[in-house]
Amino acid sequence: MRVMERNAIIRFSHIDGASIVFYPRYFEILGELFEELPFASPPFAMQTKFLKPNYLADELSVTCTSGDDWNFTGRMQGNDHFIIESLAGGGLDNAAHRPTKPAFQADPMRLAAWTTDCTGCLQVSRFYELLNAAVEQWFPRALDMTFRELHTVLGGGIPTVAMQTRCRELPRAGETIAIWIRPTGIGNKSLQYTCWLVRDDECLLENVQTIVFVKRDGRDFETIPIPDKIRTRLQEQYVAP
Fold first, then answer.
1. pLDDT, tens only, 155-167
2. Is 75 helix (H, G, I), strand (E, B) or coil?
3. pTM of whole model > 0.85?
């Protein structure tokens, strides 16, 4: 077992419109700090927990524990802010190979060079960016609320708190892929949805993501119930995992 520690300072390029780190950027930060990442090449399975937000100029201490099981932990002032770690059982569920139950399908896209690494394969951090763009399509088209209404009119947000990602293969630049999304867990203030990265009819990656609905109060965030009209549309699409 090998343990390494590095320090990172949160910069403008890491934060989103709410002034907190946009979650795909954590994976880019790890790439800046460590030469080898266990999730850079499939197959891999990992779970991610975002425990506390990070803001501009925060100074993180990031520890990497590598071996058969691996772990990245970001800490600040003695508190864990994020944990990304290996997940047992690397294979995808059989249902992931071609989802047959109702699922929202985002617009197909041809992978551009900016989404890939030096090998020509999709970067994991860029996958999460593409997923975020797919969710931005899902909300107005299937949930009857635009991101503008959610963030600007209602003053809300949907930060990610946890993910489980299982990948068999990463697509290459020039290939056409689509992202499918289906709600699989509807709570009072939280939502779990499963998404599939699909090339032709083959699923390459499955991601189970949990978000919470919040309203911003200064620098803090207060969890709020899922808006009624979103909940109604979610229940219409819900399929138990």
1. 788 999 999 999 9
2. strand
3. yes
Q: Is the pLDDT of residue 139 over 70?
A: yes
> Which residues pair with residue 154 across a beta bridge?
none
Cis peptide bond prior to 43, omega within 30° of 0: yes
- Compute the distance between CA of residue 99 and CA of residue 203 in angstroms, rounded to an integer: 8
Q: For 37-74, how does the pLDDT look when each residue is reduced to its tens digit (9 = 90+)?
A: 999 989 999 999 999 999 999 999 999 999 889 999 99
Q: Are 198 and 204 in contact (CB under 8 A)?
A: yes
Give the H/E segment covering residue 166. Answer: strand 160-167
Q: Angle 20-208-128 (CA atoms, 0-180°, nearest 5)? A: 45
Burial readout 39-49 (b: 16 or more C-beta within 10 A, e: otherwise): bbebebbbbbb
Query: What average pLDDT does the structure give for the chain?
Result: 91
Sequential DSSP letters for 193-233: EEEEEEETTEEEEEEEEEEE-EEEETTEEEE-PPPHHHHHH
Phi/psi for 36 (5° steps) reads: -120, 135
C-alpha 122/C-alpha 127 separation (Å) is 7
Q: What is the DSSP letter of 97?
A: G
Q: What percent of the chain has pLDDT over 70?
A: 95
DSSP state of 81: E
